[in-house]
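To close the chapter, one final illustration. This time we ask the reader to focus less on the individual chains and more on the assembly as a whole: which components sit near each other, and how the overall shape emerges from the parts.
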Amino acid sequence: MNSLEQAEDLKAFERRLTEYIHCLQPATGRWRMLLIVVSVCTATGAWNWLIDPETQKVSFFTSLWNHPFFTISCITLIGLFFAGIHKRVVAPSIIAARCRTVLAEYNMSCDDTGKLILKPRPHVQ
Amino acid sequence: MMRTQCLLGLRTFVAFAAKLWSFFIYLLRRQIRTVIQYQTVRYDILPLSPVSRNRLSQVKRKILVLDLDETLIHSHHDGVLRPTVRPGTPPDFILKVVIDKHPVRFFVHKRPHVDFFLEVVSQWYELVVFTASMEIYGSAVADKLDNSRSILKRRYYRQHCTLELGSYIKDLSVVHSDLSSIVILDNSPGAYRSHPDNAIPIKSWFSDPSDTALLNLLPMLDALRFTADVRSVLSRNLHQHRLW
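The assembled structure is written out below.
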């Protein structure tokens, strides 16, 4: 195995890593958008719910019933967290971190875009 | 008389309630596992760029050799006094195997994400099972993992290993003569002692339900299939094998 072939192999290896992380971006962007929209809905809903003078007079469940917008967006937000949205919004960095864990064994690392970092072979003591 | 009957009734009720409670806990534990697995970011198959597709057509399809015990699964049999898994953890399946004319029950726990892992890597590699356990047990486990998907057809067992200094060494040339396109995934460094440049080490797994070692490997395995010689990457191994 000559060094030219090895370099070629490492390049192809790196290409797939960067390509994969790049491909993840649109989906991650959509998840982030969704999280922002639902969070903003929940926040506005909560504000309206809290400033409503009725909320303090009636029971908790009745007040929730009076503010369906808040109730629904809050349930959606909880559902999203159960489905792991907090991990999906950082998926590319999770994948990059996994790469780093495995590549460390091979004296390499990678940045958040998947670019390889080759480390010099340590001297045997 | 009345008192004894009352006590007896109460005792039956308590016993029944305890059974119901443990059943409930059992169900809950299963559900928690499902939720954890679902929450984790997995590894979706994403399309190849034209350059990568072209590259893939130029290189050979690789073989991935997989170990079973403590890599893909963990099992203990009913004779063990202190099982390594937390008591009460339900096994994924139970195997009944006859060894030396004695029927033995093996409680097998699948490593988290193993089904997903096998499904994904089977699209990239030709999978081969190579285990140091006995054929009768190894083939039953492989059948269960395969789940009639026909992805684990080639299998090698203890009789295909070479015994050296009390440990079983897996000779990859038995599986395939061309070492440029074969990779072995094993938790024990001793198993691939004769082919260190073809090895991917993995931490031994016993019971941790939040383990993601198999998912961690997916980006690396995805990228590795584009190399002409897997040793270009794998020979950079420092072999700082910790005793896992």
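The beta strands of chain A are 108-110, 116-118. The first strand of chain A starts at residue 108 and ends at 110. With these observations in hand, you are ready for the problems at the end of the chapter.
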